[in-house]
Amino acid sequence: MPEDPSYHEIELLQKIAEGNREAFHALYHHYRNKIYYIASRMLQSDAAAEDVLQEIFIKIWVNREKLRNMDYFSTYLNTIVRNHLYNQFRKKANEETYLLRLLPDPAEPSQPFDETAIKELKQLLANAVAALPPRQQKVFQLSREQGLTHAAIAAKLGISPETVKKHIMEALRFIKSYLIAHGAALTVWLLLS
């Protein structure tokens, strides 16, 4: 008659409760793949799954006295794994909440530094536009500030849409070089795009 596996496990648990490390290693090797698989799927991380595996078996070893009269180790193990993973998720959620509190609230008014920087950038852009030749300046303002189409600008100024396009391209090229020369190209250029 084959040996009852549950009897073998109960015997193994008795030995672990007495501090037998070989029995503990046997238990570890028997359940490690199952725990690792569950943790890896839940946490989406192999490294985190390894940590969970180690922490669970440390907990089992530290509390090995509880194993002495245990009949259903797999139920006990499932409870430990479930609770440990739940605590991991709760801890991660708390960390994320804390980090989100550190970020500035977009609904709050921006900091004075931001407002000052924006004013300076707007002034720099205005200076660049003011330095354009008069016709380019007018075309640029009608396009970017008033939102007119190339055709509408052409009709208003009595020039061709191609000439409007050429003036806008030259104006943008000049503004870009002006901003680069004044060290604010990237920020303001993003505003222009």
Automatic annotation (TrEMBL):
Domain annotation RNA polymerase sigma-70 region: ranges: 27-93
Alphabetical keyword list: Sigma factor, Transcription, Transcription regulation
What Gene Ontology terms for biological process does this UniProt record contain?
Answer: DNA-templated transcription initiation
**GO MF annotation terms:** DNA binding; sigma factor activity
Which Pfam family, any one of them, does this sequence belong to?
A: Sigma70_r4_2
State the superkingdom.
Answer: Bacteria
What InterPro entries does the annotation carry?
RNA_pol_sigma-70-like, RNA_pol_sigma-70_dom, RNA_pol_sigma70_bacteroid, RNA_pol_sigma70_r2, RNA_pol_sigma70_r4_t2, RNA_pol_sigma_r2, RNA_pol_sigma_r3/r4-like, WH-like_DNA-bd_sf
> Coiled-coil region(s) at which residues?
none
Q: Which residues form the RNA polymerase sigma factor 70 region 4 type domain?
A: 123-174
Spell out the family assignment given in the record's similarity comment.
Answer: Belongs to the sigma-70 factor family. ECF subfamily.
Q: What is this protein called?
A: RNA polymerase sigma-70 factor (ECF subfamily)
Q: Which organism encodes this protein?
A: Pseudobacter ginsenosidimutans
> What lineage does UniProt assign to this protein's organism?
Bacteria, Pseudomonadati, Bacteroidota, Chitinophagia, Chitinophagales
